[in-house]
Automatic annotation (TrEMBL):
GO MF assignments: exonuclease activity
InterPro entries in the cross-refs: 3'-5'_exonuclease_PolB-like, RNaseH-like_sf, RNaseH_sf
Keyword Metal-binding assigned: no
This protein's name: 3'-5' exonuclease
Lineage top rank: taxon: Bacteria
Record key words, sorted: Exonuclease, Hydrolase, Nuclease
Source organism of the structure: Acinetobacter chinensis
Predicted 3'-5' exonuclease PolB-like domain segment(s): 47-254
UniProt xrefs under Pfam families: DNA_pol_B_exo2 (PF10108)
Amino acid sequence: MRLPILIFDIETLTDLKSGAHLYHLDLPEPALEAALTKLRRQETGMDFQRLPLHEIVCISGLGIDENGMMKLFSFSREQYSEAEILTRFLAIFDRKHPTLVSWNGSQFDIPVILYRAMYHGLSAPGLFDQGEIDQQKRYNNYQNRYHHRHVDLMDVMAMFNGRNFQKLDDMAHLLGFPGKRGDGAYHVPEYVKAQQWQQLTSYCEGDVLNTWLIYLRWLLLKGQLNHHDHGLWIQATIQYLKTQPQHADFLNVWHETSLQTVFTASDFSSPTS
C-alpha cells in the first residue's frame, strides 16, 4: 500500500444564487429552488443539478500518514465559508501528494471541487496540475482515469464501464460493512437548514469510512495487501474508531453487519477488537 493515503467525500446543496444568475431568475428562495428543480427536470428528466451549481457544505477525509497513523477530519459550513472549506482541503495537496481514494470522485467530487474552486478564484496546482508545472504528473496525475494517484473505487471496480457502476451503500452492505445506516435517505439539506453540523459531518465521514473499508478489500483482491496485513488494517481501524465517540454507531453497526458474511465475521473476533 502506497502511503500517505487520503480517502475523501463531499456534501453539497444547490447554489441558489448562482442558479438564479445562470437562468436569469428573480424569485424568493423557496420559489427559486422549485424553479431550478423544474428547469433541471426539463433539461434532463432528473432533479440532480448540474455540477457547477453544487455548493459544497462539507468535505470529510480520512488521512493515513507515512507511519500508518489515521486521522478523520471535516471542514464544514459550521465554521467555514465554501471558499475556506476548499482552501483548507486543497492545501493538503500543496503539502503532500497522497494517494487519493473516493467513490464516484472522478465523476462528481473532483469536478465539483474544480468548478467551485474556479468560482471562488482559487489556485490548486497540487490537485489539478497535469504536467505543466511538475512533469512527473504528465502521465500520472489526479485526473488520469487509468492510473492510481486517484483511485475512484466505483470506476475501477466497474472495470471503467458505466453499466457496472454500483452504489456505495449497496457495496458496503454486500461486503459486510455498515453502509449509510438509518433510513438511508439523503438528509443533508435538512442538516444544514437546522444547523445540525454533527449529523452532517458524521454522515459525510461515514461515507469516507465505508470507502476506506472497501479500498482495503480492493487492495486485498489485487494482491497489494496479504490477508495478514489486511487484518492488521481492519484492527487498526476498529481501534481508531473506539477513540472517535461520534462514530460509536458506525462501529456498533459494523459489528452487527460483519456477521452477515463469512469473511467479515472475523473482523471483531480478534482479542484486540
